[in-house]
Amino acid sequence: MLYYLFEYLESEYQFPGASLFQFITFRAAMAIIVSLLISTIYGKRIIRFLQKKQMGERIRELGLEGQAEKAGTPTMGGIIIILATLIPVLLFARLDNIYVILLIITTLWMGVIGLTDDLLKIKRKDKEGLAGKFKVIGQVGLGLIVGCTMYFHNDITVRQEKVTSDTEQVVVETKENSDFKPAIKSTKTTLPFFKNNEFDYADLITWISPGLEKYAWLIFIPVVIFIVTAVSNGANLTDGIDGLAAGSSAIIVLTLALFAWVSGNIIFSDYLNVMYIPNSGEMTIFITAFAGALVGFLWYNTYPAQVFMGDTGSLTIGGIIAVIAIAIRKEFLIPILCGIFFIETLSVMIQVSWFKYTKRKYGEGRRIFLMSPLHHHYQKKGIHESKIVARFWIVGIFMAIIAVITLKVR
Q1: Residues contacting 340, CB < 8 A, separation 6+
Q2: How far apart, in whole angstroms, are the C-alpha atoms of residue 199 and residue 307?
Q3: How many CB atoms lie within 10 A of CB 167?
Q4: pTM for the model
Q5: Torsion angle, CA of 284/288/290/293, rounded to 10 degrees?
Q6: In sequence order, which residues have a C-beta less than 8 Å from that of residue 318 and are 6 or more positions away?
Q7: Which of 163, 165, 250, 402 is 20 to 30 A from 286, comparing alpha carbons?
Q8: Distance CA 84, CA 63 (A)
Q9: Are the C-beta atoms of 330 and 287 separated by less than 8 Å?
Q10: What residues form DSSP beta bridges with 56?
Q11: Any idea what DSSP says for residue 59?
């Protein structure tokens, strides 16, 4: 909203300083500042409201140290993250940008699913909440919306490199040069660590017949649905001890902010030889607001937590991260960048699979980890949860650095 106001003031009255709002970096800086202020200042009021309404967490007895003391801690703190993200976005982002619209829809969609789950847990006074099949239906629904929008919407395009016949020099297509083709619809994405690092989903079927390219959506949309579902569930599993999910997610989204800004900047994308995605830079405002909201939420969520994010927060976080990665064509970086989510999910899959296999073979289920997800394994080993969280953050930073290195290492 402020973007449009200052754009009007600049064009009509030459208002001093109004031109600053044309710059993504300025608006991104303002977004992160405002989101931090909202989440830290008003976060306390939301926590008091949740306490007043007796929205306390019910703790399942798992035999973990310090577990009993957490009973009654307000949950649904994800509301803080959602509000602290959306308000700066509405103030500073261009609301006609398809990527921003898609991220707002993602936030509200996953927020409603998570909020419903948390409310049912409190109402029923158990940990079951919303049935798993309904969560999956919601995640699949979001994946379908994102996939169809990414594939069919005319404003979602990429600009490819082109070799000129005169100089044999690789240059980037621009609107200013009429010799170049306009931005095109494409199902291309980025493969990390490969020299020719672009991969087209259409290649999975065009080897049969080139005419099948128009059916590439049959591959692309299911992949998007899988990524959205997997990452949102991964974030949900990671939210098990104070500060782990919020801190790890802040590291991830700040890295994604860098990728989004570079991908949306024709000069830097050319310099780094990465895919230029027109209009994607506007996502930087949303991502920085989201990062500020996560960091501000950590003020109250670090050990000992004054509030839990609940599924309202964890499902929303996972959904947003997945959609950003897909939008900037970096979804194949998710196992690296979201390494903490990936490891936590993998630990659960390994534990469950091994338990079922050994029960079928030996009549008694056996475990590889003392408890899954992985952070509970270390808790069982007697390591304090604040130390576990700090070490997981360090691993997350390391994985983020590797992800950034992929911009040049191929």
Answers
A1: 238, 244, 248, 392, 395, 396, 399
A2: 42
A3: 8
A4: 0.91
A5: -170
A6: 110, 231, 232, 233, 234, 235, 236, 341
A7: 402
A8: 35
A9: no
A10: 74
A11: P
**How far is Cα 76 from Cα 119, in angstroms, rounded to an integer?**
8
Taking only the tens place, the pLDDT of each residue in 30-84 is 999 999 999 999 999 999 998 888 776 666 666 676 666 777 788 899 999 999 9
DSSP at 213: G
Look up residue 383 and give its two tokens.
């390591």
Catalogue the E-assigned strands of 113-267: 161-163, 170-172, 188-190, 198-200
Dihedral sign for Cα 171, 186, 279, 175, please.
positive
- 190: CB partners within 8 A, 6+ apart: 197, 198, 199, 274, 275, 329, 330, 332, 333
Q: How far is CA 385 from CA 257, 277, 308, 343, 376, in A?
A: 29, 41, 15, 17, 9
pLDDT in tens, 325-380: 999 999 999 999 999 999 999 999 999 999 999 999 888 889 999 998 999 999 99
